[in-house]
Specification:
eight-stranded mixed β-sheet, 219 residues, Pnp Oxidase, Chain A, alpha+beta
Length: 219
């Protein structure tokens, strides 16, 4: 969707929606009940084998779900209009099928002077990549490639509030919403639908150069 504005509830309503969604997630163990954690696929008449790099089902493995539920920002990469690469850190929310980030279209209460310029670029060049990775040892890294779509919402995007709750806690998210969700605030939802997924944890999934998992296609 491009150039489309979506009506959302006021700040009080959004905080209530956030609370209901958090309770729902807790009741379901913090993940979508339709997601069955997997890390291997069956083969005819033989043992199971690891999912190859590139298989989007890797998003439903235990390691990937742990990273998607973590407080680690995603590193979001895209190509600018002049062909040069860009990468930014960003909060995100995983909804079970897509990775959603948000940025401001307008925010007079916090001094936003113009809409984020990357939105126009993403609409013209929607192919993106992102990574969520740890800095401990052994490291874990989830790499996603996909196609981004952008839409605009009045007020704060629901996924932004859910991400804020994960990063700041529910009290911190409510405080943030009260401060920034004022008249005139608008956000863009940047929705990434994964088309390629890679996962390395240096335990059960080593890089191919170490004799580990390989890609279903050349990366």
């Amino acid at each position: 969707m491009t150039g489309k504005s979506i009506k959302t509830p006021g700040v009080g309503g959004r905080i209530q929606i956030l609370a209901r969604m958090r309770v729902s997630l807790k009741r379901r163990g913090g993940q979508d009940t339709n997601v069955r954690l997997i890390d291997r696929i069956p083969t005819k008449g033989g043992p199971t084998m690891q999912l190859p790099q590139g298989d989007v089902r890797l998003l439903h493995t235990e390691a990937a779900q742990r990273l998607l539920r973590s407080q680690i920002p995603a590193r979001f990469a895209f190509v600018w209009s002049d062909g040069t690469p860009r990468v930014i850190p960003t909060w995100f929310h995983w909804n079970g099928t897509e990775i959603v980030t948000a940025t401001y279209a307008a925010g007079p209460a916090i001094g936003i002077r113009h809409a984020a310029q990357r939105v126009k670029v993403l609409r013209a060049h929607p192919h993106v990549a992102l990574t969520i990775d740890t800095d401990g040892f052994p490291p874990e890294a989830l790499t996603v490639r996909g196609v981004a779509t952008v839409d605009e919402v009045d007020g704060l995007a629901p996924e932004y509030l859910l991400a804020a709750s994960r990063y700041l806690g529910e009290a911190g998210a409510a405080e943030l919403a009260s401060a920034v969700d004022q008249p005139g605030t608008r956000q863009y939802r940047i929705v990434v639908r994964p088309t390629w997924v890679g996962l390395i944890d240096f335990r059960t999934r080593l890089p191919s150069v170490q004799g580990g998992v390989t890609a279903a296609e050349n990366p």
